[in-house]
Amino acid sequence: MDRPRDWLGARATILLPVLVAVLSFVTGVVNISAVSISGPLGDLIPRSIQRTAGFTGALTGFTLLVSVVGLRRRLRIAWYATVVLLPVAAVQGLVQNSAVSIPFVGSVPSSAVSIPLVALSLLSLPTMLLNRRRFDRPIDLSTAQLAAGAALLGSLMYGTAGSYALRDEFTNLSTATDAFYYTLVTASTVGYGDMTPQSQQAKLFGMSVVVLGTASFAIALGSLLGPAIEKRLSEALGNMTDAQLDLLENHVLVLGHGDLTEPIIEELTGEIEFVVITPDTETATRLQQQDIAVLTADPSDEVPMQRAGIEDAAAVVAATNDDAQDALAILTAQTLNPTVNIVAAATDRENIEKLRRAGADTVISPAVLGGHLIVQSALGREGMENIADHLLDVNDEDDAEI
């Protein structure tokens, strides 16, 4: 990691909020469990506020984790939510900075987690601001997901408004909060039984909440499981998921796949992150099974290159058996990112200059290179075998014994 963006890049914008979320949740749980308070802020902040901060701190931690899921997809709304939640987590950490006494544990300084929470929250905020341009995708909800959200929200509003209007016909239901609580536990089929309908009208209404609520929860669950199933199908077909693609930076794009690509993949493995773009489904599946990042698509199209992070790529390699296809892929890559280093392998010698004109910075002809080594070695030129061995990373056991 020799550049600042390696430390403050996409991975930092994911990792730091995750750490803040965990610390916020732990700090909240510690303060919720406390039976007594002392310390520098214990006398300044009322106990009710500290308990509320503990509860909301745990909720903030959970919400941050949900935002991180959106950050992995580079959603702009997730970036805004994280930027808002990080200062909230810092404030909650300050409020909870005191020593607490927990049953069965004893005196525990919540500052042990609240101070790191404040520091990490403040550190994460500049990182998020520096990487704002990365999170430029609008939220893209399918029709089914929009319908699921509308159904769930509508059933909750219906249940809350109806039960509050009929509050006199329910036991222990008198406020709007009670009405929402009743609707939530009824629709989710939890049913604590602490609030029950007493009249026929209230019972009929309660049954309608059960039917509408459970149906809306089921639809919402289906819309959440759909992307997970799609992910499994993508992996089975040899595709990287959007979440995996969004975290790529300083990587190498290998455009296409052929006989020349296999040794390139072997050299890249373990050296740097790389993505292979190939239209061959069987090849993509085989590479995926070898834990190689692959995207099943036309390597000369703009969309798959953009999905594979051509803007943040360190280099592009085009080395298939089809020079015409390589030239088209190189031209597209050079158009999308004029500053990226493009290396091409020419199958035919006469295509070397054509690949350069297409935008390749370096063009190597394996056939010409191999032919040169063979001829020079046949003519008795010394050192040719050593050069070939070095290129192929072959150790000469006979020379080692000598």
Characterise this structure:
It is elongated, with a radius of gyration of 30 Å. The chain starts with a helix and ends with a helix. Helices cover 60% and strands 9% of the residues. It has 3 domains: 131 residues; 95 residues, Helix Hairpins (Orthogonal Bundle); 145 residues, NAD(P)-binding Rossmann-like Domain (Rossmann fold), CATH 3.40.50. The chain is an alpha/beta fold. α11 links the parallel β5 and β6. Strands 6-5-4-7-8-9 form a 6-stranded parallel β-sheet, sandwiched between helices. Strands 1-2-3 form a 3-stranded antiparallel β-sheet. Pfam families: Ion_trans_2, TrkA_N.
Question: Would you spell out the secondary-structure blueprint of this structure?
Answer:
Blueprint: H1 4-7, H2 10-32, E1 36-38, H3 47-72, H4 76-95, E2 99-102, E3 106-109, H5 111-130, H6 143-165, H7 176-187, H8 200-236, H9 242-246, E4 252-255, H10 261-268, E5 274-278, H11 281-289, E6 294-296, H12 302-307, E7 315-318, H13 323-336, E8 341-345, H14 352-358, E9 362-364, H15 366-378, H16 384-392, H17 397-401
Parallel strand pairs: 4-5, 4-7, 5-6, 7-8, 8-9
Antiparallel strand pairs: 1-2, 2-3
Protein name: Potassium channel protein
Main location: membrane
InterPro entries: K_chnl_dom, NAD(P)-bd_dom_sf, RCK_N, Trk_Ktr_HKT_K-transport
